[in-house]
Each structure stands twice: as C-alpha cells, then as structure tokens.
Design goal:
With about 400 residues, the protein is an alpha+beta fold. The chain has 3 domains: about 10-25 and about 115-235, no CATH class; about 25-110; about 235-350, secretion proteins EscU (name from scop, 3-Layer(aba) Sandwich), CATH 3.40.1690.10. Helices cover about 70% and strands about 5% of the residues. The strands form 2 sheets. The protein has a 4-stranded mixed β-sheet with strand order 5-4-3-6, sandwiched between helices. Strands 1-2 form a two-stranded antiparallel sheet. Strand 3 (about 265) and strand 4 (about 270-275) form a beta hairpin. Helix 4 runs antiparallel to helix 5 (about 75-110) and helix 8 runs antiparallel to helix 10 (about 175-215).
C-alpha cells in the first residue's frame, strides 16, 4: 500500500493516533513494567522483612509445637486452616505494592485509557497459521535477543558477585549460623540491587526504542494525510467544529492576533502557531495564536487572507505549541525563532523595495509623459497658414479692393 500512496514521510495525525489507541496500539515497554514491578516487590519485602519473618516464625513455631506435643488430626487441620490467612497476610502487602506499581508504570507510559476493542475476540488471533507466521517476524527475534541479553547479564552479575566472595564462601561452614545468614543475606542483597538496576535500565532503553518504532510504524504518506483531511472535511461533526472555531476566532480576538502576527509556523498539517515580535514592547517574541488540526487550518486560512507568511518547521511548531497564548518564547528557542523572523523580515523588505521601485518607475513614467505633452503644446501647428498669407476672406477682400 505504501508503494501506491507514496513514501511515508509525514508524522501520524492525531486522528490516526487516536484510532490506534482505541485498538490498544500504544508505545510501551513490558520490560520496564516488569522491572519496576520486580524492584517494588523486592524493596517492599526488604521494608516488611521484620513483619514477614515474624509471621513465618510464629507459624513455624506453632507447627513444631504441634508436632512435638500434640500431633493430632485436629491440630493438623487447624494448622492447615491457619496457613492460608498467614500466607495472605505475608503476600498481600507485597502483591498490592507490585500491582499498584504495574498500573502506575503503564499509565505513565501510555496515559489512562480503556481499549475495549482489544477485549473483542478475533479469529485471526487463534488461527495457528497466523501464529506460525508471527514466529518469523523481526519483533519476535528482537524480543528473543533481548531476553537472551537479560539472562546473560543476570548470570554475569551473579558470577561477578560470587567471584569476589568465593574464598569467604568456603569459610561459611566455620561461622556461626547467625553470621552465615548475615553473610549470605549481604551477597543476596548486592546481587538483587545490581540486577534490579540493570533491568530498570534495560526497561528504559526498551521504552525509548518502542516509541521510536511505534512512531515510525504510524507515519503516513502525504496522500494518506490528504485522504484523512478529505474525510474529516465531509464529516458534519468536523464542519460544526470548524464553524465553532471560526466563531471563537472572530469574537475572541484570534483573527486580529493572526492578522497582526509576523509569521505562522506550521507542522505542516496538525499544528499552526502565530508569533509576533514587537521590539518596542516585548522583550522576546511571543505566541499570539495557536491551534491543532481544524483550528490550525483556520489559522492558516486567516494567515493567507491577511498575507502573513506561513513557514514549515516541524520541531519549532511542536515546541511553540507547548506554550500558552501571550507567553514569550524561551531562550532555548531564540535561535530558531530568530531565523524565522529574519527570513520573514527579509521577504517583507524585498516586497517593500519592489513596491518602492515600482512606485518610482510609475512616477518617472508620469513625469516623462507630462514633459512630452508640454513639448507638443508649445510646437506650432503645421495645418494653419502663415500670418500675412491668410487665404479665404482675406484674399477675396484684397481682390475686390
């Protein structure tokens, strides 16, 4: 399809991203979710280690006491009944912390939304042929390679921790039980901390990679953008939104802001931001109007109507769109905005020079025509007879005399 519609060079429109979100297609990293969940569970266990050991110790003592003093069927049944509440008291706090972190890490990556279309069963998902085809996708190989790297890294960390402690580990048998437990806990703590840090780092890298791949997959060709715009043009709801936005622009001063702007920076389809720089009043250029999608189209229409230059600069348009109306441009955007304004001022200067030259040329032509008319008015007519040699009545009177 991309061959028919052209190369995909344009960023995905908000409409396409919205549809993708409805279908559950969002950039996120399950590795980051798993790493944060593992880290939360680990640190929750460390924080509750006293509580957990206390509960387990009490239950273990009860089991040993029952085995030694009262090993009856009723006692065993009672212990089995008490095991479930004890297990829940130990695991529920840690499980709740992991669950909250899992929800939080997903919301942070994708925002809060409900993709109900994902819950609808599809025959393609249970088709074994499609499943076999999916095994040979590039994503599957990337996931396999990533898991192998994680396993290898975890094994390398375990070896690096044990390598430095091999000699001391041989002396553990000579230690007292409490000392041996403390020494083993220290090694385990070091390994888990390093492994957690590694997995979180891998998750962050995987998130950045997932977003890059997602944005590349969602890119559109210029033909796709035009087709989507045509479809939105025919939508009555979109037409109503455009009329409402036009009304808001006209009665909220937006049209006047666009008219007085120095330039309009576009994305080119999704965003339009009008900027103005008054050297007498403003310390820096500021945003005087902005909009996305339908609103952006209206701003561009007003800019064309009032003759305001429209320039395409995707990174600058996205950065300016984050600012509020009448907010001054931050210092990190000075250079980019200065280039835009310099280009606009150069165009205006060239237009003024052309208009001045055209006015001078018209004035020169007018003067030349006036001078030529003056010369014609002073020259004698060749059709009139010379004085003293008039014909007609003068000659006739002379002959009669």
């Amino acid at each position: 399809m991309s061959g028919e519609t052209g190369e995909k060079t344009e960023e995905a429109t908000p409409e396409k991203l919205r549809k993708a979100k409805e279908e559950g297609q969002v950039p996120k990293s399950q590795d980051l979710v798993g790493a944060l969940g593992f880290a939360t569970g680990f640190f929750a266990l460390v924080a509750l280690i006293g509580y957990v050991f206390g509960e387990v110790e009490d239950f273990a003592r009860a089991c040993l006491d029952a085995a030694v003093h009262n090993a009856s069927e009723a006692t065993i049944t009672k212990l089995l009944e008490d095991a479930i509440p004890m297990f829940l008291k130990v695991t529920l706090p840690i499980g709740a912390a992991v669950f909250v972190m899992g929800v939080f890490s997903n919301v942070v990556q994708t925002g809060f939304f409900m993709a109900f279309k994902v819950l609808i069963p599809k025959i393609d998902k249970i088709n074994p042929v499609n499943g076999l085809k999916g095994l040979f996708k590039v994503k599957k190989f990337v996931e396999l390679l990533k898991n192998m790297v994680k396993m290898g890294a975890a094994a390398w960390i375990a070896w690096s921790v044990m390598e430095d402690a091999l000699y001391d580990m041989t002396l553990v048998v000579t230690m007292r039980f409490e000392q041996a437990v403390d020494y083993g806990s220290g090694l385990l703590w070091e390994y888990l901390v390093k492994t957690t840090a590694l997995f979180v780092a891998i998750g962050v890298v995987d998130l950045l990679w997932s977003r890059r791949v997602f944005n590349k997959e969602q890119m559109m060709s210029k033909y796709d953008v035009k087709q989507e715009y045509k479809q939105s043009e025919g939508d009555p709801q979109m037409k109503g939104q455009r009329r409402q936005l036009a009304h808001e622009l006209l009665f909220s001063g937006g049209a006047q802001n666009v008219k007085n702007a120095d330039a309009v920076v576009v994305n080119p389809v999704h965003i339009a931001v009008a900027i103005k720089y008054d050297t007498d009043k403003d310390k820096a250029p500021k945003v005087v109007a902005k909009g996305m999608r339908v609103h952006a189209e209206k701003i561009k229409e007003l800019a064309k109507h009032y003759g305001v230059p429209i320039l395409r600069n995707v990174p600058l348009a996205q950065a300016l769109n984050k600012l509020d109306i009448d907010e001054e441009v931050p210092e990190d955007l000075y250079e980019a905005v200065a280039e835009v304004l310099a280009f606009v001022y150069k165009i205006k200067e060239e237009q003024e020079n052309r208009q001045t030259k055209q006015a001078d040329d018209r004035a020169s032509e007018q003067k030349a025509r006036m001078a030529q008319m003056g010369r014609h008015a002073q020259a004698p007519s060749t059709d009139d007879p010379p004085r003293g040699q008039g014909g007609g009545k003068g000659n006739l009177l002379k002959r009669r005399g």
